[in-house]
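Q: Trace token order:
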Amino acid sequence: MRLVVCDPPRHGASIAAILNEVIATTTALYEYSPRTSDDMSLWFRTKDDARFPVVVAVDDSDAVLGFATYGAFRAYPAYKYTVEHSVYVHRDHRGLGIGRTLLRDMIARAAGQQYHVMIGVIDAGNAASIALHEREGFHRAGVIPQVGYKFGRWLDAAFYQLILATPADPVDG
């Protein structure tokens, strides 16, 4: 396995397939509808315009095993040093350390881009993701009970954060 920067024409359909499987079968994403190719095109453009990375884990044949990214936590200027990340692994490759490798890469990239806080919003019932984040130094910042509704039940969103030593010289404005 190796990590590469996403090339949307080459990796985009595989990323969409991973997302759509997660949407259809899990509570890792509080979404109901699958992502269309138009949705994904806009998603990739938005990431690129904002200089947010999209990294894919691929095998020797360039098949996508998983991906990770981050984006703005909130749209207000004072949040400019905070990002919310996402890590998704293909269902056939979960539990093999791919998520950990992708998360570590996101942490390094966020520090390199001078962000200060990384936020992971995790379904409170997702024990594997919570354990991964805690192993990588994230701390539980809080839970919002019953904030989502999917598969006929209320869902609690757990917020996990990692404080980075960056930026060297933060500024207002």
